[in-house]
Amino acid sequence: MDIKQLRALLAIAETGSATKAAELLRIVQPAVSRHVRLLEEELGVELFERERHGMVLTEAGRTLVEYGRRALQELDRAKAEIKPASGAISGTAVIGLLPSTCELLAAELVATVKARHPQLVVRLNVGYAGNLLQWLEAGDVEVALLYDTKSSPGLHVEALLDEQLYLVGPAGTFAPGEEQTVERFRGLPLILPNAPHGLRSVVEHACAVAGITPVVAVETNSLAVQKNLVGKGFGHTVLPSSAISEEMETGVLAGAPIVSPNLSRRIVLAHAATRRLTPAASFVSAELVALMKRLVLDGAWPGASWISA
To answer: What is the pTM of this model?
Structure first.
């Protein structure tokens, strides 16, 4: 088994065709087919089912693709780390972002990185905290933003900021500067993430302490759907300001901080303690922290307070 064979396997898995894989890899189609045939002979299993409309991974093929992708990622990171420094950073940095932070961070982070190091590729993987933690542990992302996670022997965590949570409703629901309490949840139809999402747990815990049974009207694992349903009047939700900054500015949604009890979440930056960061990932994570600090201190991240040194 060699690198060329693994790259051929991944290319066919991505495109569903040996011909398209050959175009992607810029080699001839018989070479791609030969790489996969040699893999199958070595392992003694079929990696693809050859169907009329393309090539579909078998169970064994899916397993090898999963491990093969991680192996190639590790090799690419090693090459980037040992390549002689020339002042410019290249390679790929795989960063995990929370859905609620993307509107504030993604575009400006990419613009900053590209201005400094045009050859550096930023890969932004977006997911809820539980998914991001799994991706970190598996090596699918190098650095990720998480909520309220503690350091452990396998995970290095740096606390960055505390973020106020807002009760969010349709346009005109709250007056400017208005504040809300958890008591407002009583009987209020809520649109919340699926359990056991961290935000759902925060809301349910606050309601339990207040003796309130939350009325969950809709569950969704999509932030966009969550905000769309609120905007159309199907209920209220609870989100940090970073997730609704644009909608509040344009008047699509209204939000009021929840102050009694104060509901907030802590955002941390995490990476695997057992895996060295590539120069690309180190640079991008440093720029990400600097960007977040600037947004908080400039007042562009309402309801957030900076806690990192």
So the answer is: 0.71
